[in-house]
Amino acid sequence: MPTPLVIDTDTAQDDCVALLVGLLDPAADLRAITMVAGNVGFDQQVRNAFLTLNVAGRLGEVPVHLGCRAPLTRAWVSAENVHGDGSGGLRMDQSGLEPESEHAVDALVRLAAEHPGELSIVAIGPLTNIAMAVAKDPDFARNVGSLYVMGGSNNGRGNITAAAEFNFYVDPEAAKAVFAAGFDVTVVPWDPLTLRQAVFGQERLDRIEAIGTPLSDFFTDVCAATLEFDRSVGIDGTTHPDSLTAAVLLHPELVRRSARYHVDVETAGELTRGYSAMSWGVHGLEPNATVVEEIDAEGFHAYLSGVLATETVPARKITRSV
Ligand code: RIB
Ligand code: CA
Q: pTM for this one?
């Protein structure tokens, strides 16, 4: 039976690829897309989500709920310097495309409560919506079957600062609340996992471009700005932590090694805002999360290539802005 899930996203670049996974993998039953402030301007993220639904040939089939437009207590921090507009400059007529009137936090609470223990959430942006749902419904963490989080680093480098990964840096208070809430949570971290095993270098990117479907063209376009940024900071390819997070939920066989950790997030540090303290069992702290440590990297590339090989018929014409 396909896995019922919601993707909570700040849709830009790899978030778009993660949505394709949720929309096109037969193992997924994507019940909703919930939007949270993160990578690029909120309204642009929403446009990117509708664009992705269109390229997947699923426009109008999956509800899009607007969530928190800012972190819990702090000002929004953008990653437009990394992702541009997050769509590679792709455009389509968005007239008539309306998000749901129900707020994302209400939708998350409702969907989890409708089938307690069955819904999975793939959270690939700042954790603001998830923390708000925890605050709103004391049963939320218990009602969610599993929560897959892209964020933090496992005693490794950050990306937005030396100490912090972007999703946890943007809303550290939310991330801290989520790890204290009692979810069955699995973490896909930035370093070392993403940097070692979910970077697609030129040879892998060439193989994807050669697939020649609307989806592989879309992938190349949405990843172009990030590729340029990554190379400028010494990463030799595009990074895919968000699509990896969706993939490991649907295909746990991609995980070669994981371990239980106590994960907490720094909210008070001057230089360490959003730092994820991942304690590996020798500091007297109860584990509260499973952290993915190693994946089948070639298997992940092959899996995504399979998703991108799907022949889809976008209902609306997509153009590239100059
Ligand atoms: O740090 C990586 C995360 O922030 C990903 O979710 C990506 O979307 C990003 O900008
Ligand atoms: Ca993201």
A: 0.98
